[in-house]
């Protein structure tokens, strides 16, 4: 009989913790209601330039890898395939909405050791920074095969639009520069 009291107390604490977690997630969804949905992947994004299997980690606010984006299913971790196409990057997730990152919205790609609850060896995650509406976000992906990381980074980096270079004024004709 004495054990039943302790079991009931333990179950009550567990239920309370789960309820508080659900409340926190619901509040995060409410706070992020203004975050736009990623665009739908085009029917034909072009030929596959590179493809890697792995795990979609999450999408977070850029440079704040603890601020997971919960809306539109972007905060749900799961198995995925990331494919690089001429039009952008398509992350096809198992049991969740496909994430499409248009080429024009790509900002950068880098390797990192972790983000929002997923920490791995040094440079174990591929992190793609891109524009989503008016803000920037980071999307993390862990390749299934370590050798795929460098190839995925190179393929995405090849799509990142170059920053416009400042134009230098033309040299006056007929005059030598000293």
Helix content: 10-25%
The major sheet is characterized as:
8 strands, antiparallel
Rg, rounded, reads: 22 Å
> What would you give as the CATH superfamily of the domain at 50-159?
Pleckstrin-homology domain (PH domain)/Phosphotyrosine-binding domain (PTB)
Query: Low-confidence runs (pLDDT<50, min 5 residues)?
Result: 165-170
CATH topology of the domain at 50-159: PH-domain like
Query: What's the CATH class label of the domain at 50-159?
Result: Mainly Beta
CATH architecture descriptor name of the domain at 50-159 = Roll
Structural class by secondary-structure content = alpha+beta
Strand content: 35-45%
Number of helices: 2
Distance between the termini: 98 Å
**Overall 3D geometry?**
elongated
* H/E element sequence: HEEEEEEEEEEH
Total beta-strand segments? 10
Report on the structure:
Keywords: Membrane, Transmembrane, Transmembrane helix. Pfam families: bPH_11 (PF25362). This is PH domain-containing protein. There is one protein chain. The longest helix has 30 residues, at 2-31. Strands 1, 2, 3, 4, 5, 6, 9 and 10 form an 8-stranded antiparallel beta sheet that branches. The chain is built from 2 helices and 10 strands; from the N terminus they run H-E-E-E-E-E-E-E-E-E-E-H. With 178 residues, it is of the alpha+beta class. The protein has a domain at 50-159: Pleckstrin-homology domain (PH domain)/Phosphotyrosine-binding domain (PTB) (PH-domain like, Roll), CATH 2.30.29.
